# Entry
Amino acid sequence: MASIPEPVPMPEPRPQGTDPKRLFLGYLDYYRSVVTAKVDGMTDEELRGSRLPSGWTPLELLTHLVHMEQRWLRWGFAAEAVEAPWGDSQGSSGGRWTVDSGTSLEMLLTRLHDGGARTHEIVEAAELTDVAAIGGRFAAGTTPPSLLWILFHVLQEYARHAGHIDIARELIDGSVGE
# Structure
């Protein structure tokens, strides 16, 4: 099990040459770090409570990010068997985010960063033009997306939800983002 890394300094990652894989992986690491920093120091009550009309909680959002990344990279691109790919949303793609009462912040952060390490392995072993394997998320007869498409999608999910958790944190204790 990987340890939870210290948050990356808030300035965006510096360009790492012209390798698009390095850029994607750098930004994904950055956003994982931003989300980690935003939930750091929240009480269990703050993590499990909501101040938003939609009702989602910081732990539910974190659970969503953990499952979202595994759905797209492990189950989706690599067609690996994963337990409960829709475990963040009551078993369906359109379900409301949920988190089990026995799930802790530390457990979710470990899963988030372990998932990031697996993403690195998958991306480094493939080409951006490679198409997702059949057998996991994508059934025979479908048109699976490329790794490039998947990485764009996962990156925009992280960026959007990092903004959401930033707003939730500001509503909780006044802490603001960059």
